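[Q] Does anyone have a clean structure-token version of this?
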Amino acid sequence: MIRFENVGLRYGMETEVLRDVSFHIPERSFQFLTGPSGAGKTSLLRLLFMSLRPTRGSITIFGHETSTLARHELPILRRRIGVVFQDFRLLDHMTTYENVALPLRVRGKDESSFRNDVVDLLKWVGLGDKLHALPPVLSGGEKQRVAIARALIDQPEVLLADEPTGNVDPHMARRLLRLFLELNRSGTAVVVATHDLGLMEQIDARRMILNDAQLDIYA
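[A] Here you go.
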């Protein structure tokens, strides 16, 4: 599904933040991405989402070499990927329900076909009473859960989650992990970037550890 071969990334003339990174993400797999702050986890996720291109090396996603893709082809592939960003990227003029429903509306789906799914998912993440709330009145943890629900609602082929439990309590973190596992069991490949060792110890999953710009993988 996704393959990196000898990928390097640098910003401007600075030292490479990723160096000779090679790995593959199979279909239906689950992996944690971890490492110290500044190790390059967010940069790696941005390469996976095709919002960055590597300085060198090869990245193949869904059978496409990303360096050869035209700009207009990128959004089509990105629709197959769900992303939870650390900065949430919610639209402040839209309600919680509207933010989560947005990917489905963009695809042209009929409201009646997904309304119950959106409501049920928001209830699952503890926001059933916040359907009509706007992002500015939500807490950081609530915004994070809205962002997670938006990323999951269309059952993407790949989920990229950048510190998805960083603003929630341990009980909600375990609940969200179960949600990711259910999505994985239904066929989605999951990559969770996290510093939370306790979270990683809850399930037996591959660990991808970034350190000093390079990647080690432990099954």
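[Q] Thanks! Anything notable?
[A] The domain at 29-51+80-218 is CATH 3.40.50.300 (Rossmann fold).
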